[in-house]
Design goal:
By secondary structure, the protein is α/β, with parallel strands linked by helices. It has 24 helices and 11 strands.
C-alpha cells in the first residue's frame, strides 16, 4: 500500500462519477449535488490502479497532482508527473530529470514496487484526440511488461472517448505480465491474492472521479492562506451576497480574496462579473501568444462572440479543425471566423486561448461561465446602441409576442434583457411592462436604482398577487428569497 500522502493543508475531496454522467462532471451544481460527505481523499484513490479525474479548469487538478507527486517522491516512492501534451511529442525518458530517471530504472528492475504516473492535461488546447492517444501509447511503451505494477492517474475532460482509450491502451492485467520473471510472477500473484482477501484494500481497479468544489470549511482555510485577516467576515458577505457559486473553484476564490483585501467587501454581482472578465481577458502569463491583443480589442471580440453564442444558442466555439471530427451537424460549434471576420486568424486564436474561455472538447472552447456570456452579450448590445443602432432594433432581439397575443421577453435572452435594463431606461421600461419577474430573477437586481427597485417589486406583486405563489411557480422559477428581502429593505418603503 502506498504511503499516505500529505499533499497540502487543504484536503480536497473526490467523488465517483456515474458512468452515464461523465459529460456533467464540469458543472459545479452537479458536483455539489454529489455531496462532500461521501467523498474520497487521495489515500482512498491510491488503492485503485487507474484513475481518471474529470473537473473543470481552475478546479485545482494540476495543483493536486503536483503536490501528490512531491509527497510520494519525498516518501521514497517512484512517482512521476508529466504533461500529456509533452508526452504526446516526446518519449517518457526524455521528460524525466536525472534523479527521476535513476528512480525509474530502479523501479523497473524491482520485483514488487508500484510506480505512480500522473498525466496532466494542463494545456488542453494543445491536445488533439490523436495526440492524447499518442501520449498513452508512449507511456505504455515505457512500462511495457510492467502494467500490473503501475498506477496511472490522468486529468481529463468529460469526453467518453478519453476513458475508452485509457482502458484500451493502459489496461489492468488480470494476470501478471508475460514478460515478468518467474519470481516476479509469483510475487505479483501472491500480492493480488492478498489484496483481494483484505477488506481494507478492496477497491475497484478503475475509478472515474471528479475533484469536488471547495466546501465552506475549505473556503475559509484557503481565504486564510490567501492573506484574508477576517475570513469569517468574508464568508458572511459571500452568503449575504449569495455568491457561493463563484467561490467554489480555487482560482475564482483566489481572485475574490485579492478583491476583498482591496475593497474589504464583496462588491455587487455586476462588479464581480466585470472584474472577473477583465482578469480573464489579460494576456497569458506564460507569454505564449501568437500576437499582441489589446484589452479593448479582446473585450470587443469577447462581446461579439457572446452575443452570437446567445442568439445562435451555440455554447461551444470552434478553435481548430479538430472540432469537425464529431461530425454531428446539429451540434456544430460557432465559428469565430464568421463573427470576427475582420480579425486575423492569429488574433482570433489569441483571444480564444485566454482564460475567459475553457476547453469544451477536442478543437472546441467555451466561455467559462454562463453569467459571463449573458453579461457580455448585453454589453455588446449596449455598445451597438451607443453607436446609434435604434432602440427598436434592440427590442426586436429581446422581445416578442406569442401566438396568444402575450407580450413577453424572449426566454433565451431574459438574462441579457435584465443586464441591459440596468443601464438602458427604454429596455427597463419594456421589461417592467412585459415581465417584471425578469428584473428580479436575472442580471443583478441589487444594482437597480432605489426607484427601479420599488417599481419592480410593485409590478411583481401586482402581477402575481391574484394567483399567489402557485401561479408563479407554474411558469417561472420563484424569485430568490434573498433578492426580495434585499430589494425590499433597500427600497426603504412598503411595496403593498
Amino acid at each position: 500500500m502506498a504511503t499516505e500522502p500529505k499533499t497540502n493543508d487543504i484536503e480536497r475531496s473526490f467523488q465517483d462519477i456515474p458512468g452515464d454522467k461523465l459529460t456533467e462532471a464540469e458543472q459545479t451544481a452537479f458536483l455539489m449535488d454529489l455531496g462532500w460527505h461521501k467523498g474520497s481523499n487521495w489515500t482512498d484513490l491510491l488503492k485503485s490502479e487507474r484513475i481518471l479525474i474529470i473537473s473543470e479548469a481552475g478546479a485545482g487538478k494540476t495543483y493536486e497532482c503536483r503536490t501528490l507527486q512531491q509527497a510520494l517522491w519525498a516518501a521514497g516512492e517512484p512517482a512521476f508527473y508529466v504533461e500529456l501534451a509533452d508526452l504526446s511529442r516526446n518519449n517518457l525518458r526524455d521528460l524525466l530529470s536525472h534523479d527521476e530517471e535513476i528512480r525509474f530504472d530502479a523501479w523497473h528492475a524491482s520485483q514488487s514496487d508500484v510506480a505512480t504516473f500522473l498525466l496532466d492535461s494542463i494545456d488542453e488546447l494543445k491536445l488533439s484526440l490523436g495526440s492524447f492517444e499518442q501520449a498513452l501509447k508512449r507511456l505504455a511503451k515505457a512500462v511495457a511488461g510492467q502494467l500490473g505494477r503501475v498506477r496511472v492517474i490522468i486529468t481529463s475532460r468529460p469526453i467518453p472517448v478519453d476513458e475508452q482509450l485509457f482502458r484500451q491502451i493502459l489496461p489492468v492485467p488480470d494476470e501478471p505480465d508475460e514478460a515478468a520473471t518467474s519470481e516476479q510472477f509469483a510475487n505479483s500473484a501472491m500480492a493480488r491474492r492478498a489484496q483481494k482477501s483484505s477488506e481494507e484494500q478492496i477497491a475497484r481497479d478503475w475509478r472515474n472521479v471528479a475533484l469536488l468544489p471547495l466546501s465552506n470549511a475549505q473556503i475559509k482555510q484557503m481565504a486564510i492562506r490567501e492573506g484574508v485577516d477576517d475570513p469569517d467576515a468574508l464568508i458572511a458577505d459571500i452568503r449575504q451576497r449569495n455568491a457561493e457559486e463563484f467561490v467554489r473553484r480555487p482560482q475564482d476564490l483566489i481572485e475574490l480574496c485579492v478583491d476583498w483585501r482591496e475593497h474589504r467587501r464583496i462588491r455587487s454581482h455586476r462588479d464581480q462579473v466585470a472584474s472577473n472578465i477583465a482578469v480573464k481577458l489579460k494576456p497569458r502569463e506564460d507569454g505564449r501568444e501568437k500576437v499582441a491583443l489589446s484589452a479593448d480589442k479582446a473585450s470587443e471580440g469577447a462581446r461579439r462572440l457572446a452575443l452570437a453564442a446567445t442568439l445562435s444558442r451555440k455554447l461551444t466555439l470552434r478553435h481548430s479543425a479538430e472540432a469537425d471530427r464529431e461530425g454531428d451537424p446539429t451540434d456544430a460549434p460557432l465559428d469565430p471566423s464568421s463573427i470576427l471576420h475582420d480579425w486575423t486568424p492569429d488574433e482570433r486564436t489569441t483571444l480564444l486561448e485566454r482564460s475567459l474561455f475553457g476547453f469544451a472538447s477536442y478543437g472546441r472552447v467555451r466561455f467559462h461561465h454562463r453569467s459571463v456570456i449573458e453579461y457580455l452579450a448585453s454589453e455588446h448590445l449596449l455598445a451597438l446602441r451607443a453607436q446609434g443602432i435604434p432602440v427598436r432594433s434592440i427590442k426586436r432581439i429581446l422581445f416578442t409576442t406569442t401566438a396568444q397575443g402575450d407580450e413577453v421577453v424572449k426566454p433565451s435572452v431574459r438574462p441579457v434583457a435584465a443586464w441591459m435594463a440596468l443601464r438602458e431606461d427604454a429596455i427597463f421600461e419594456e421589461v417592467l411592462r412585459r415581465e417584471p419577474d425578469v428584473l428580479l430573477n436575472f442580471g443583478d437586481p441589487e444594482s437597480l436604482s432605489p426607484a427601479q427597485r420599488q417599481r419592480s417589486l410593485r409590478a411583481y406583486v401586482a402581477r402575481h398577487s391574484a394567483g399567489g405563489w402557485r401561479v408563479l411557480a407554474s411558469s417561472l422559477p420563484p424569485v430568490p428569497r434573498h433578492s426580495l428581502i434585499n430589494l425590499s429593505i433597500s427600497a426603504g418603503s412598503s411595496i403593498a
